[in-house]
Amino acid sequence: MEIHRRHGMTNGSVWFAVCVAVLFALSAGCTGSATDGDRAAVKLYVLDGGVLGSDPGRYNLTKEDVETTDLSVTAYLVVHSKGVLLWDTLSVSDEERAGEPAGGKKHLVLANGQDRNMTLGPPLLAQLDSAGFKPADVQYVALSHYHWDHTANAGAFPQATWLARQADYDAMFAPEPAGSVRPVTYASLKKNPTVMVTADEHDVFGDGSVILKSAPGHTAGHQVLYVKLNNTGGVLLSGDLYHYPAERTLGRLPTFEVDAQQTESSRREVEAFMTRTGAKLWIQHDLPSLGKLKKAPEYYD
User: Fold this and answer.
1) Which H, E and C letters describe the chain, residue by residue?
2) Does pLDDT of 256 surpass 80?
3) What gap in Å lies between CA 6 and CA 248, rounded to an integer?
4) CB atoms near residue 218 (< 10 Å)
5) What is the dihedral of CA 55, 61, 64, 67, to 10 degrees?
6) Report field, pTM of the whole predicted structure over 0.85
7) Tens of pLDDT along 38-51?
8) Superfamily in which the 41-290 domain is placed by CATH
9) String of b and e for 82-99 (b: at least 16 CB within 10 Å)?
10) What is the band of 22 on the pLDDT scale with cuts at 50, 70, 90?
11) Which residues contact 93 (CB under 8 A, 6 or more apart)?
């Protein structure tokens, strides 16, 4: 007691100091767990883009290798406490479908002359609205790559920051863009605020919950998206790293890769990434698997 008095402290003041220290420690603990809270708040909405008629021969597969020859088309909305990211933008824009309802048919001709037939899903903006979001709420847009079935509604988000890879950017705005493209669908992206992503693994929100991972080969700047969800766990959105599950199990490659050897390398790296993170692979074009997923306004967290 004498020591406490010499420092101007009574027994009561000592206890007060102890309580303050405890409260400070608890407060610090709460502050330290804010990142975990941010991660727990991440939501992932699946946006249905309809069904694309396809030929498994384009992927070095036979009809016997696949459950169905048709492919799904999807986009995804990632909602984080620090922002909203739209991943891919479907195959037919809301504007060009001109009110055609889900289930309607759409015939498209690509820049390289290919004919593609779509069975439409619901309009993209209507799906966002059902989840409580408007185009202005989307702060970031990222494309797995620039092929037509991923870029249709890219122009609907002029305020969003485009997270782009230089190699795909250059290919998109070349004098004569090559491959399965419809440049009119993404031309306005050139006016968007743009961040050129250079890291192999780009941490979008700085807490490891949403990562753009480089996976070139299908196109020179192709990328995949990792989303860490509190209850669902880690999910890896494939872009076009795979189209059918049989490509993965049989080791087959599409016939139209920009660099097939690079695709093989990217697949090995992504498989290692999934092993390291424990992520589940969602093949974006896998119609049977995607048909089982909840669609907006429902979500995964």
Assistant:
1) CHHHHHCCCCHHHHHHHHHHHHHHHHHHHHHHCHHHHHHHCCEEEEEEEEEECCCHHHHCCCHHHCCCCCEEEEEEEEEECCEEEEECCCCCCHHHHCCCCCCCEEEEECCCCCEEEEEECCCHHHHHHHCCCCHHHCCEEECCCCCHHHCCCHHHCCCCEEEECHHHHHHHCCCCCCCCCCHHHHHHHHHCCEEECCCCEEECCCCCCEEEEECCCCCCCCEEEEEEECCCEEEEECCCCCCCHHHHHHCCCCCCCCCHHHHHHHHHHHHHHHHHHCCEEECCCCHHHHCCCCCCCCCEC
2) yes
3) 75
4) 27
5) -70
6) yes
7) 444 899 999 999 99
8) Ribonuclease Z/Hydroxyacylglutathione hydrolase-like (3.60.15.10)
9) ebbbbbbbbbbbbeebee
10) very low
11) 124, 152, 153, 155, 156, 185
Q: Scanning the structure block, which residue is given the tokens 């090559």?
A: 178
